[in-house]
Amino acid sequence: MTDRSSSAGSLTRRAFVIGAGAATLAGCVSARPPSVAPQPQVPVREKRVRPPMYEALPDERFPIPAVDISRLEERFWRAEIDYDAREVPGTLIVDTPAKYLYHVRPGGRAVRYEIGVGRDGFSWAGRAIMAYRREWPRWAPPDAMVARQPELEPYSIANGGMGPGLRNPLGARALYIHKDGKDTLYRLHGTPEAWSIGKEVSSGCIRLVNQDIIHLHGSVRDGSPIVVIPDPAKRHLLAV
Q: Start and end of every L,D-TPase catalytic domain (predicted)?
């Protein structure tokens, strides 16, 4: 199928800038502390057959349960599509308004992933590099985040952060984004919270279900370019 995203067709004509809030990104955690508040209620949907790509991964270091596809609409499932990106193969394109991530492949193709994005005030946009990747990463909230959410103090940098595992906000894999040789504090990472995909919930970072971030981690290469398209509603991220 062919993706019709209006954002993609004008990538080469857009200017991108790092958002002023990049230095204070909240460390890739959902709007609530990990495993504290209950998940929001969602409408009951008709039963669907789970595709093999979203089955459980029992052989992972921390066994990953199957994705609850009642919370992940079929139109958002991972797919390889026709995609005229006008970017070199290997590029990662984060379409923030559409809440899709594309991994550009040769021949006018791309793998499309549905994502959750940062809520207003903790977003970033621009051109950068996916500097490196980590399996089952540790996570530590920046000091600014701890100041806002004191309940995260046990996981602070001073206390060594949170160890890897299913409760870790970075999930099974994390991709680290650098700009001009500096860490933007912006991440692409996993989450077990399928309900959060397609929404604005994280503090700045891009989240994929764990099965999707594992797939992306295995196909992307360190040093790959990344383009993050700003949301027009967040005008502080747009170039003038």
A: 90-229
Residue found under tokens 């379409």: 95
Annotated catalytic residues are 189, 205
Q: Which of 66, 39, 44 minimizes the C-alpha distance to 55?
A: 66
Spatial distance between the Cα atoms of 168 and 24, rounded to a whole number of angstroms: 20
From CA 142, how far away is CA 194, in angstroms rounded?
A: 25
Could you tell me the mean pLDDT of each successive run of 10 residues in the chain, 240 residues long?
47 40 48 47 62 98 96 92 94 95 97 88 83 96 88 93 95 97 93 92 86 98 96 57
